[in-house]
Design brief:
The chain is built from two helices and no strands. By secondary structure, it is mostly helical.
Length: 50
């Protein structure tokens, strides 16, 4: 197996992983959890009286 084939395989695997992460990040199942995480800094500031 030469370097060109190995490089192509790694590129394809990286692309599949990247697309999987994109689908996971934008899936509707995670929306509520991500919105809650995004509000945490604001909620913490309100609780501390700032």
């Amino acid at each position: 197996m030469n370097f060109t084939i190995l490089s192509s395989i790694v590129t394809v695997i990286s692309m599949v992983v990247f697309i999987g992460i994109i689908f996971w990040a934008f899936s509707s199942r995670n929306k509520a959890r991500f919105e809650e995480i995004a509000r945490q800094p604001i909620d913490n500031d309100n609780e501390n009286g700032k």
